[in-house]
């Protein structure tokens, strides 16, 4: 009896310790929605390198700036950009005051739900839609319109509010970086005042760390009260070569880490990578039609109007050591549970 | 003997306690360069009101935004703006490459040290000087030029580097606010890339919390390396009605406290004051010719080209409960000791 009893006690202890260790590991893993693999490893190694005091790649907390594209990097951008869905809803809501829209493009296409015609409106038509839906009110009124829309609008495929369609692995990454002394910024081609009402709740990113495209605002007094009126004029396009410009304008420091998913993020990653010391540049690749969407045209996936990832971006990533995140292989879940 | 001894012990104790309390008070005073008076009291009462958890005026730390003008509010702006002194020095340094400047205004006035002609160059001439001295190089090169200039340039009257001419009472105020959970921002008509190289060292304010006027930058690759080139085109003028516009653009939140010293700060204080809850708006009034400068034209002081405080601003301050800081009466010292 003695040996078996000893063995069983030992076994129980070993098994207990094993379970305890597993539980502790699972609890301590800051990136539980990431599968083990090269992407997750690259993130953890980078963070350890820049936060190890006395290490060769140590970066002072004040310079730990990480920038994130939004559409397609932090949340869903298909079948159309969330902000475009908002603009279409706004045009429909405002249509009763604009009878001429019934016969004028691009508004007619919106009111007729004519997706084929909408696909052809081009940049000029898109700007017209944005101005008609985003300008002509105060910043406070626009914030309320956006906030109200987020409360009711739902994604057509996932049937959930857009604010629930942040990628859970990226939310974990944002938190992991902040827990390690990083400041996390959004640097998006989307409208800054469309994003700010939701970024704190969805990503933990406060308004002052959201950089985006903007229209001009004008300071006015209305009945003795100062307001900022949103004007139908482009102020800044925070996309492509505009991203490093926006980063310099708003932050005044070069990021040490940058995350994107499309050709619009190329220059942000180039600018980030051109700094000295340890750097982390990553691109989310949408290769998961089952759980989300699959689009390229890189690697032979279908081309798209929204967030295209061209082959030459894939080639540049390979050439420059930017890491490509496979949604299908690197993420064990896409969204937080309901 | 007994009673006297007891008395003397008691006295020693009381006196000791008194000195101890005084020392503690002096040590605990976060604003030692401020004289006791209405200005200091208003600051302390405001900070206590917005930081008292459960109080009627409590403000969550995320919304404790305080904005500060720079020239004349945080540091000296006479006899001319520091950035103009920099521009004049740059024009002189670049003159050998521009022989035509010897006969062309506004450059001729600079090279001849003709202050009377300089006073007449107007806004167009000023923009020409700024573009000639601030554009045509990369952001990295400009940062180095500015940093080097600050190392050697000295103020003509005080014979000290400009970076030593921050107002010590305002530096204490910045620290006091930050110690109470505020984010402190500079919102200046001055050039953002002229200020950022010195704001952390001088004011404890990092680059991303500096808002200012800017010229456009353009992303380019030079010999395979990405650079941001500074172009001779105005991007944004962060002055007067531009200040609330800049605050909304960069911060996306309304400040609860704002500090200025001239007509250029009027709209920033109006915008701040128009929000709900406890607010603190203050204007520095330069009424101390002995220790610094005295200029208005408010209250009959001499008018000026640099940071004028007009009478109607003084009237608006009185009307709206903005507090006017008398440099002469409220500050027991102006600059930190050498």
Automatic annotation (TrEMBL), chains A, B:
UniProt protein name: Haloacid dehalogenase-like hydrolase
Keywords: Hydrolase, Signal
A Pfam short name: HAD
Molecular function via GO: hydrolase activity
Signal peptide range: 1-26
């Amino acid at each position: 009896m003695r040996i078996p009893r000893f063995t069983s006690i030992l076994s129980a202890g070993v098994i207990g310790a094993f379970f305890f260790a597993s539980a502790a590991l699972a609890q301590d893993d800051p990136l539980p929605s990431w599968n083990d693999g090269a992407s997750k490893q690259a993130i953890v190694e980078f963070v350890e390198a820049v936060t190890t005091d006395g290490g060769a790649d140590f970066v002072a907390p004040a310079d730990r700036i990480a920038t994130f594209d939004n559409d397609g990097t932090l949340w869903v951008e298909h079948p159309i950009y969330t902000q475009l869905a908002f603009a279409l809803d706004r045009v429909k809501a405002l249509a009763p005051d604009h009878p001429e829209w019934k016969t004028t493009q691009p508004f007619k296409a919106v009111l007729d739900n004519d997706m084929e015609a909408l696909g052809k409106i081009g940049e000029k038509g898109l700007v017209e839609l944005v101005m008609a839906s985003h300008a002509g009110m105060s910043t406070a009124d626009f914030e309320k319109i956006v906030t109200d829309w987020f409360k009711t609008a739902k994604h057509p495929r996932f049937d959930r509010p857009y604010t629930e369609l942040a990628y859970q692995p990226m939310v974990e990454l944002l938190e992991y970086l902040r827990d390690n002394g990083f400041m996390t910024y959004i640097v998006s081609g989307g409208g800054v005042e469309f994003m700010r009402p939701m970024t704190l709740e969805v990503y933990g990113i406060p308004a002052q760390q959201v950089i985006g495209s903007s229209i001009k605002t004008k300071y006015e007094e209305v009945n003795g009260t100062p307001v900022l009126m949103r004007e139908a004029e482009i102020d800044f396009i925070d996309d492509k070569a505009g991203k490093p410009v926006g980063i310099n304008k708003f932050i005044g420091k070069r990021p040490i880490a940058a995350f994107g998913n499309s050709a619009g993020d190329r220059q942000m990653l180039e600018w980030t990578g051109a700094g000295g010391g340890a750097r982390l540049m990553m691109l989310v690749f949408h290769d998961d039609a089952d759980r989300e969407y699959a689009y390229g045209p890189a690697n032979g996936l279908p081309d798209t109007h929204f967030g295209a990832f061209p082959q030459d971006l894939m080639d540049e990533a390979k050439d420059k050591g930017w890491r490509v995140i496979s949604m299908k292989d690197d993420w064990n879940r896409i969204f937080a549970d309901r």
